[in-house]
Specification:
The chain is of the alpha/beta class. The protein contains 10 helices and 17 strands. The longest helix has 17 residues, at 296-312. Threonylcarbamoyladenylate binds next to strand 5, strand 6 and strand 10.
């Protein structure tokens, strides 16, 4: 039992994200309640972004630290311009990538309560492409503040089942729109400067942003732990996130050395999983092996599912091969690195010293 769970469990309904379900959800949002709903990235836990009490309930239901700001979901750039100071770069990127998995950070306008942005003078805005999310935005006529619909510290939910596993008894309604197509959270980019600065990589890659904006930078803390006393460009970076119960070790280096090292580490041990790309599975015949799929896109779709599954099966250790950090591979490796506390095991070196 979760000690933080209220004594009297409220009922949580799970409805298909059809006309009726969306209408119910819109009513709940309009009256200040919470609803978990599907997007193309991951499931979100929504509340009216204009209602401070409702926004506070999001932090409580998730067990989310109060210093971690929320994303505000809107229909389009016109709605976005009501919530934040919409500049030319924001508009250019929204025209190319919206609706879709890009969150744009601009200065916050007064209609959005500071609680949404955890007191920051900026606001994160995204127009989702999932038809159910769009129908919900249309039906409620409000900007919807929504972080991922997981309990804080768990992987983001990519199915309604996962949202229910975390939030049952804490929200009145979960809308089921099937598994999320992308499976990783949106790209978060600060566009207050001359070029986009990526704070969290996602399906809109730095390469794609550079094509649209002429140049794009990636915050260097995306692939390493923050240093002691270092300011986080995005508060989300201060928190571990995504950590499975199992100790996750990322093994990098020459492909043959990686396989040999993982086999050596996992040999004869119980409760160990090996994660590797589909075309690398054959070297692990005697191990509990799980496939990361044929490419970064498939790895993105199944990563959070696999991490949750490992918890369910009480896996104690996971050894994982690394993927190239290009395109969507950067987002996959960012989530893996965070889940591993940014620790890599270097198979290239004899004796394989652990690095931070
Ligand atoms: O795909 C997604 O983005 C999903 C779906 C539901 O839209 N949402 C999501 O929200 O992943 P959340 O709260 O789990 O992640 C939001 C991230 C956090 O890392 C947060 O710190 C960052 O965006 N963020 C939000 N507002 C920010 C701001 N004003 N400045 C910097 N970072 C911000
Ligand atoms: Mg989240």
């Amino acid at each position: 039992m979760d000690g933080n769970r209220p004594e009297t469990k409220a009922r949580t309904d799970c409805l298909p994200a059809d006309r009726e379900g969306v209408a119910r959800a819109a009513n709940i949002l309009r009256s200040g309640g919470l609803v978990a709903f599907p997007t193309e990235t991951v499931y979100g836990l929504g509340a009216s972004a204009l209602n401070v009490q409702a926004v506070r309930q999001i932090f409580i239901a998730k067990g989310r630290p109060a210093d971690n700001p929320l994303i505000v979901h809107v229909r389009d750039p016109r709605d976005a311009a009501q919530c934040g100071v919409w500049n030319a770069l924001a508009d250019r990127l929204a025209r190319v990538f919206w609706p879709g998995p890009l969150t744009i950070i601009v200065r916050r306008l007064g209609v959005i309560p500071p609680e949404v942005s955890a007191g920051l003078d900026t606001v994160a805005l995204r127009a989702p492409s999932h038809p159910a999310a769009q129908a919900l935005l249309e039906a409620c006529g409000l900007p919807i503040a929504a972080p991922s619909a997981n309990r804080s510290g768990k992987p983001s939910p990519t199915t309604a089942r996962h949202a229910l596993d975390d939030l049952e008894g804490r929200v009145p309604l979960v809308l089921d729109g099937g598994p999320c197509a992308i499976g990783l959270e949106s790209t978060v980019a600060d566009v207050r400067g001359a070029f986009p600065l990526v704070l969290r990589p996602g399906a809109v890659t730095p390469e794609m942003l550079a094509m649209a904006a002429g140049e794009c930078r990636v915050a260097d803390s995306v692939m390493r732990a923050l240093r002691e006393g270092e300011d986080a460009p995005s508060p989300g970076m201060r928190h571990t996130h995504y950590a499975p119960k199992a100790k996750l070790t990322l093994v990098r280096g020459d492909p043959d050395a990686v396989r040999a090292r993982i086999r050596q580490e996992a040999q004869g041990r119980k409760g160990v999983w090996v994660l590797a790309p589909e075309n690398r599975l054959e070297g692990y015949d005697n191990f509990e092996i799980r496939s990361l799929g044929r490419d970064a896109q498939e790895a993105a779709q199944r990563l959070f599912y696999l991490l949750r599954q490992a918890d369910r099966e009480n896996v104690e250790r996971i050894y994982c091969e690394t993927l190239p950090q290009e395109g969507l591979g950067l987002a996959v490796m960012n989530r893996l690195a965070r889940a591993a506390g940014f620790e890599f095991l270097d198979a290239g070196e004899s004796g394989g010293r652990e690095e931070r």
